[in-house]
Each structure stands twice: as C-alpha cells, then as structure tokens.
C-alpha cells in the first residue's frame, strides 16, 4: 500500500523541477558501487588536468581545492554539529602564520611545522569554543565573529612576529626527496591529495560514534543530553577537528604563496567559506566540493563581464535561497 508521502503531489514550479532532479541524482548514486565509480571518474579527470591545462587553469583549480578543504572543516562545525561559526578564517590564519613564522624566522623544515600549527589551531579552537558552549544561533555567531576579528587584529599588530600590516615574507617552500616544490603543478597535486584525504576523513568521522553524536546534538541538544551525551565535550570536539582542517590548509597555503598578510584572513574570508558551505548543502560532504567549486569558478568563468559578475552571482544566490534553501546537494535526513 502506498504511503501518504508517496501519494502526496510533487511540488510545482521551479522548486518542483529541482526536487525531481534531486530525486533522480540520489537514485543514480544510491548504491556504493555507483558512488565509488563516480568518485574514481572524478579523481581520474582531476589527475589528467595537469597534462592538458594551462598554469591559469591549475591556479584556479588549486584555489578551488583549498576552498574545498576549508569548507569540509567548517562543515564539521556548522553542518555536522550545527554550530554557526562566522570567524572560521581565524584557524586558517593560525595555520598559515604558524608555518610561515617557523620557516621564515626560525628556519624550520616545513614538514616539522605542521604538528605545532595543527596543535595551535586546535588549542585556539577550544579556547573559542569554551565561551560558546551555552550559546545558540545569533549569539553564537556574534562570539565566533569577535574571536575571528581578534585573531585578525593580532596579526595586524604583532609587528615583530607577524610582520604587521605588511605581512610575512620569505616563507620557505617544502621539498620532497630533495625536489623543491616551487611549481604550480606541484601544489595542484598537493591540494588535490589533501582534498581526497580530507573527504575520506570526513566520511569516517560522519559515520563514527563522534559523528553521530555531533548530529544528535545538532538536532536536539536537550534530548542528546538526556540520552547521556556530554554536549559540551561534543561541541568542543567539533571546533577542535574543524580548526585542525583549516590549520592544515593554512600551512600549505603559506608555503604556496611564500608571503601572507592579515588582509587574506579578514571577516569576508569567513563569510565566503560559510556561503560556499550553505550553497553546497550543509552536512553533505560532496556538497562542500560543489559549493567551493561554484564560489571559485563562477567569477572566473564570467570574468568577461567585469564587476557585473558579482552582481549576477549575488542574484543567483538569492534565487538559490528562494527556491533551494537547503543548498545544491544537501544532506538527506531520515525522518520517521
């Protein structure tokens, strides 16, 4: 016998067409064999790009991969745990500056800089998370926004350590087996591998005990606590893991650029990452890739229309929020 949900008429208009397209896509990728075949095809296409693409194409795609990693980290905080973070660029800055300072000022090997950068990003994430444990929605957003601005202001004013407003220069690039990584295709491969590893880690986390706990707290804090979950520790763990993702991205970003400045890590950077997460579909790992690619590729594809491209992009975002508020590729939540 058909259920009430099956007998209900499909929504009409643009929303209805989008709903039917979504249903078709989910049916096409519902089996593991189809999903993994699609992933393998995408990785193969990405691996062939350096053989045919120009340096400009590699640069744009490398930036896209960077944003995918950042979106995956924020998705842990906002998508899995339901914590609205408007200062996420702070962790990105901490990773970049820690690696940059250790390589340029203290002449550390780049690979040895990664553990302290991740540790510092995790520590700051916990410090930011502690005051937010009892906050929700807009109050939580205000606190995280303020924390992000504190990190930005410190980067601008600690002249002897961070280079002040002028930024940090002379950041040493890494090497592997004696080969200096100083070409764009080197960083294309690095960030591509980072995306694959980050997606695999997110998938394991999502289906682990802590991943389920994040979603329980996101959906109903009081019910989760009544079931014996320690919601404060669960929230802190989401901040910690998300901060480490951004810290790792910051390490390799500083190595790629060899120079960083506080302007890269402004509030607008946090907003851009958050918009990509919402656009892709909060809680969906594949949606993070879609949202990040849309944020980076759209302005480049429509560069010919000049400053109007951002106007068009803004109009499309409004269109999306009107007819597809859950994002391009949202998480499927099961209700009984």
Describe this structure in words.
The protein has a domain at 54-264. Strand 2 and strand 3 (179-180) form a beta hairpin. 38% of the residues are buried. The protein has 15 helices and four strands. The longest helix is centred in the C-terminal third of the chain and has 27 residues, at 231-257. The strands form two sheets. A two-stranded antiparallel sheet has the order 1-4. A two-stranded antiparallel ribbon has the order 2-3. By secondary structure, the protein is mostly helical.
Summarize the structure.
It is built from 15 helices and four strands.
Question: Alpha-carbon distance between the termini?
Answer: 17 Å
Low-confidence stretches: 1-10
Rg of Cα set: 21 Å
Number of strand segments: 4
**Structural class based on helices, strands and sheet pairing:** mainly alpha
Question: Treating each run of at least 4 consecutive H or I residues as one helix, how many helices?
Answer: 15
- Mean pLDDT across residues: 87
Question: How do the helices and strands line up, and which of them pair or pack?
Answer:
Layout lengths: L3 H4 L5 H16 L3 H21 L2 H26 L8 H16 L5 H20 L7 H21 L1 H4 L5 E2 L5 E2 L2 E2 L3 H23 L2 H11 L1 H6 L4 H27 L1 E2 L6 H14 L4 H17 L6 H16 L13
Antiparallel strand pairs: 1-4, 2-3
């Amino acid at each position: 016998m058909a259920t009430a949900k099956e007998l209900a008429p499909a929504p009409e208009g643009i929303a209805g067409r989008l709903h039917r397209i979504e249903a078709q896509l989910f049916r096409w990728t519902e089996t593991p064999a189809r999903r993994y075949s699609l992933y393998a095809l995408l990785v193969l296409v990405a691996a062939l790009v350096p053989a045919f693409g120009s340096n400009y194409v590699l640069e744009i795609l490398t930036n896209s991969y960077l944003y995918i990693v950042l979106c995956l980290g924020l998705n842990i905080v906002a998508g899995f745990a339901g914590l609205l973070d408007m200062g996420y660029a702070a962790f990105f800055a901490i990773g970049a500056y820690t690696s940059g300072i250790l390589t340029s000022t203290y002449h550390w090997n780049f690979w040895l800089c990664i553990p302290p950068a991740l540790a510092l990003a995790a520590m700051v994430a916990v410090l930011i998370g502690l005051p937010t444990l009892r906050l929700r929605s807009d109050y939580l957003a205000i606190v995280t926004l303020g924390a992000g601005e504190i990190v930005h202001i410190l980067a601008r004013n600690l002249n002897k350590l961070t280079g002040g407003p002028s930024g940090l220069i002379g950041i040493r690039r890494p090497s592997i087996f004696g080969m200096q990584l100083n070409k764009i295709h080197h960083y294309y491969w690095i960030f591509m591998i980072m995306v694959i590893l980050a997606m695999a880690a997110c998938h394991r986390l999502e289906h682990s005990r802590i991943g389920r706990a994040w979603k329980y707290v996101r959906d109903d804090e009081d019910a989760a606590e009544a079931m014996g979950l320690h919601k404060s520790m669960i929230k802190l763990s989401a901040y910690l893991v998300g901060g480490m993702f951004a810290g790792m991205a910051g390490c390799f970003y500083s190595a790629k650029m060899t120079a960083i400045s506080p302007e890269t890590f402004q509030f607008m950077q946090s907003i851009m990452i958050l918009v990509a997460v919402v656009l892709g579909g909060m809680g969906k790992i594949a949606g993070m890739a879609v949202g990040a690619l849309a944020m980076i590729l759209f302005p480049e594809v429509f560069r010919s229309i000049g400053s109007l491209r951002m106007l068009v992009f803004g109009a499309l975002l409004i269109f999306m929020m009107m007819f597809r508020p859950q994002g391009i590729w949202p998480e499927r939540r099961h209700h009984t």
